[in-house]
C-alpha cells in the first residue's frame, strides 16, 4: 500500500516540557489507524503536529515524498489534503450547515458555488444531514454538529481524515450516530487517523492500533494483537484500566 | 416573510428620507465650501469672519433683506452693523465680500491661518489680542451695560456696586469678564461661551446679570420682555481699547492701512445711523406668544436651517462612523495578527504596533474639540494646507471613531473561540481568509451594538465642530436662538431633532442585527428527502 503520511523522529516541546519524543509512524492509503492512550500522553498533540496546528520542534513529516516542514513548503495547500474533525466540532458559527461545507471549497479550492454545493450535498447526504442545510450550528444537537463537521472535512476531498476524540464531547445517546457514520466511511475505504477512547470502535473498525504513553509510541499492531496479546507492560496496564472486562 | 421584510425596509427608508431631506442641500453646501477653499488664494475676495449670532453687530437671516449677505458655504445670509461696515470696506477695496460664519473662539485662529482676511465681529482691540493679531482704527465705540431680569432685584441699579452679592458673568475671553472684578463683593461666575448661553442662564435664574455692550443690551431687552438693560451712572472703568470695536487683521498686513483710510471716510453720524438701523432690523418678533406657538413659528421660519443643520450633522456623523469603523477594522485586524516566526518580521510588527498604540492613545486621550482646532487651524498655520471645513470635520470624526473602534474590534476578535481559527486553518485557510470568512463576520456581529453606540455619540459630539466653521445642528440652533431670543423653544426643537436622529439610527442598527442573525428557526430542506 502507498504511504500517505510518514512521520520520522518527530518531537514537540512546550517550553521545557517534552510532549512528543522521537515519534516514527506511517499512515498508508485506505488504512484506518486508531491512536489510544491515557490522558496527557500526547495523542492530540501528535495529530495537531501532523496538520501543523502545532509547529513540531524536530523531525520530519513526509507527505508524497516531500518533507512539509521545509521552509519553502506550502502548508495551506498541504492542509487542504488533510481533513480534521475536532472534539468540540468547531463549526463556523456564522455559516449555516451548507455554507460550512461550501466556503472552503469556494475560497480555497476555487470551485464554483454550484459545484461546491453539489459536492457538499453529496457528503451531507452520507452523514444524514442533508435536510438541515439551512440550520445554523447553534440550532443543532452535538451529534448533528459532529456529522456536519465530518461532511465539511469530506467536502474538501482530502487524502486522509484526522479525528481527535470526535465523540468525547457528546452525550452517550449521540455517540452511536457519529460512530456509525465513521464506520461507513471506513468501510468505503477512506483513510482515517482516529484518536479515540472508544475501544469498541478501535477493535472493530481499525486496521492498526497505536498505543501512546508519555509522548512515545509504546506499541502498535493489529487490533487483535494489541487488545488480546499486548507485549508491553504499559499497554497491558492501560488496557486493564480501561477495559476491565478483558482482565 | 420576504414581503414583511420589504414593508419594513420601506418604513425605514421613509423615516430616513425625512432626515436625509437635508442632504441635497448639504451636498450643495459641501460643493460651495469646496469652492471657497479654492478661493483662499484668490485676491479678488475679501473674506470676513464673524459669529453671525451677536445682534445687532451680526446675525443670521433667511434672505437678503435689509442688505443681508450670503454666508459662504451656506444657504443663509448674514446681516447687521458689522456686515454693513464689511460691505463698505469690501466695496472700496474693490473686492467681493465673502462672509465666513465662525464660532467666536475660532475667529483668531482663522485669521492667523489665513482662512479669513479680517475679523469684523464686534471685537475689541485688547492688548492681549494685539499680541497675536493687528487691529484697524475704531469703527464703533460703546459703553458697558448690565443685562438683568425685568422686575428682579437689580432692575433699579445705578452703580456697579449695587451688584454686590449678585451672580454676574460675561463672555469668555472678553474684557467684559475681567471688569467684573471691579464690583465689590460680586459673586463672579464662570465665564460663558456666547451670549445665547448667558441669556439662557439669566432667564433661568442661574445668574443675576451679565455684562454686555450697549447695542447688545438694547436689542436683548427690546426682544425679550423679561430682560432689562442697566446703564450705569457709576460704571466700569474701561480702557478706550476695550469699549472700542475694531477690525482684526493679520499681523503686519497691508490691509490695515487701507481699512483705516476707508473707515476714516465713514462719519460719526453715518455710523450711528447704521447702528440704529441694525438694531431696528435685527430679526425676532416682539409679539407675545405661548411656547407652543413659538415652537411652531420657529419651525416655520427656521425650518430649513434646522433641516440643513440636521443634514450636516447626519452627514458628518454617518460618514465619520463608517470611515472610522473601517479604519478601526484595519487597525484592529493588524493588532491581532499572530506573532510572526521570522525575526525581521517580528521587529516590523513591534514598530507597527507601537505606532498604532500612539495613534489610539492620542486620539482617545484628547477631546475632539481640541483635535479639531489643532488639525484644522494647525494644518493651515504650519503647512499652509487649507482643508474644507466639512472635509476636516469628517476627517476628525473618522480618526476619532477609528481610535475607539479599533479597540472594540480587537476585543471582538479576541472574543471569538480559538476553535474557529483552528477549524478554518485545518481546511487550509490562511490568516487573511480566516479573518474574512470566519472571524470578522462573527466579531462584527458581536460589536454591532457598540458601533451603534459610537454612531449615536458621533451625532451628539459633532456639536463641537462649529469651532471649525461647520454649520451643524447645534451651531444652527444657536444662531436661531441668538436671533429670536427664544432659547428654550429653539433648543427644544434641536433636542427633538437630535433624539429623532439617534433613535432612528439605533432602530436601524437593531434591525440590522436581527437580519444578520437570520431567522430564529430553520426550515427543513424538504426537496432533498
Ligand atoms: N499549548 C500547550 N502548551 C503547553 N503544554 C501543552 C499544550 N498543549 C498540550 N500540552 C501538554 O502536552 C501534553 C499532551 O497533551 P495532549 O493534549 O496531546 O494529550 P492527549 O493525549 O490528547 O490527552 P487527552 O486524552 O486528555 O486529550 C499534556 O501534558 C499537556 O498538558
Ligand atoms: Mg486530546
Automatic annotation (TrEMBL), chain A:
CDD domains xrefs: ABC_HisP_GlnQ
Location (main, coarse): membrane
Pfam families: ABC_tran
Segments traversing the membrane: none
Chain ranges of the ABC transporter domain: 5-239
Listed GO CC annotations: plasma membrane
GO molecular function, one term: ATP binding
Compartments it resides in: Cell membrane
Keywords associated with the record: Amino-acid transport, ATP-binding, Cell membrane, Membrane, Nucleotide-binding, Transport
Keyword Transmembrane helix (UniProt): no
Membrane topology designation: Peripheral membrane protein
Family: Belongs to the ABC transporter superfamily.
Protein name, per record: Amino acid ABC transporter ATP-binding protein
Biological source species: Candidatus Galacturonatibacter soehngenii
